[in-house]
Amino acid sequence: xxxxxxxxxxxxxxxxxxxxxxxxxxxxxxxxxxxxxxxxxxxxxxxxxxxxxxxxxxxxxxxxxxxxxxxxxxxxxxxxxxxxxxxxxxxxxxxxxxxxxxxxxxxxxxxxxxxxxxxxxxxxxxxxxxxxxxxxxxxxxxxxxxxxxxxxxxxxxxxxxxxxxxxxxxxxxxxxxxxxxxxxxxxxxxxxxxxxxxxxxxxxxxxxxxxxxxxxxxxxxxxxxxxxxxxxxxxxxxxxxxxxxxxxxxxxxxxxxxxxxxxxxxxxxxxxxxxxxxxxxxxxxxxxxxxxxxxxxxxxxxxxxxxxxxxxxxxxxxxxxxxxxxxxxxxxxxxxxxxxxxxxxxxxxxxxxxxxxxxxxxxxxxxxxxxxxxxxxxxxxxxxxxxxxxxxxxxxxxxxxxxxxxxxxxxxxxxxxxxxxxxxxxxxxxxxxxxxxxxxxxxxxxxxxxxxxxxxxxxxxxxxxxxxxxxxxxxxxxxxxxxxxxxxxxxxxxxxxxxx
Length: 500
Known about the structure:
The protein is of the alpha/beta class. Helices cover 31% and strands 18% of the residues. The chain starts with a helix and ends in a 53-residue tail after the last helix.
């Protein structure tokens, strides 16, 4: 009897203990139910993301101090939500930044490392950029929206040639016939440009004027759930004249007028009340007085060989210029002797007070930043300097018609970019200090009821209405705070002429 009682007690204790253990309804080999993002597409919602290339945040946070008249930017800020600035990715140049904004990941993950392709000799020097969307290695806003059955559109957005976008006018220059627009016509949605520009456009035949007219047409006729628009003239003006100069501010006011037209187009189309506008930029600007020619240094050190005409024909170490930064690539990544030599050369230059180098970043630094995976190291320019593309002549010289640049470390305040959220899902009156560029795409996705499944970034809840249901990705931890990017800190950034 005693043994039976003991056995009965043991069974009871085991049953109680079992109830206290975590329960599971799946076999260990089964796929967890929470592996897929939990999203509910909002098919009546619209996101229009407008990038004003090179727009510094003080153009909307302190316009009066600059003597700047930008009523649409100011109205969006006052009646929407905004960041004092945005910390971007490295290098802070257009194509990697725009790709981060639509993917929520760093360049080493999405695959767009600089503006221009790396083309060391003896490869043909095409000076082509990362035009084609096939170079992107992860999910984008447009691919996620398309899979969810939403209508997508893009005008002039970088890295969209060949993208699966319903109404697409990609940015691509014809380097053989600059300004002709032939390649844009070739890769745009058939017939779209002709239809859009057949309408009244006020006689503005500039690139941004045409892009605005095409955007107005798409909004009026197709009412896309997701629309991406890229305006470029401010960037061009600030490269030539510098930021906050009279010439640059005049162009900024013109950009504001284009912005007003896009806002009005949504109103005329009857979607303004269900549209959330994202006003963004890709980088700020630093002043330039001098250029530092890394190629000249490497030639003198016999790491690049030139022909009789002064053109590179062979190399051991080669520069990949991004304006305010410059990657150094080794022909043989395992060449330790050259690695030591190159490091010593540029550390010596960086050690000189008032010199052209702000910092030399080792591979470990670049891994932390998610930057240029094939670079051995990167050089970051001192304020007042930009990197040039020469292989002959002086190492340092005056910069005559190039007075502003970017590409430097994103932690540098002058390189901060912009973010305003305005319209249906904006938390009016909300403001954050420094947002992360990584979080812009996930925030736009959240407004559409979507999740960017591969994103590192998170939705910026403080800038969105408190009652907006934000879908969650079970792979990510939710946050109520916009986190400062603790990790911070292409040929020339000049853009080839594009007709549209």
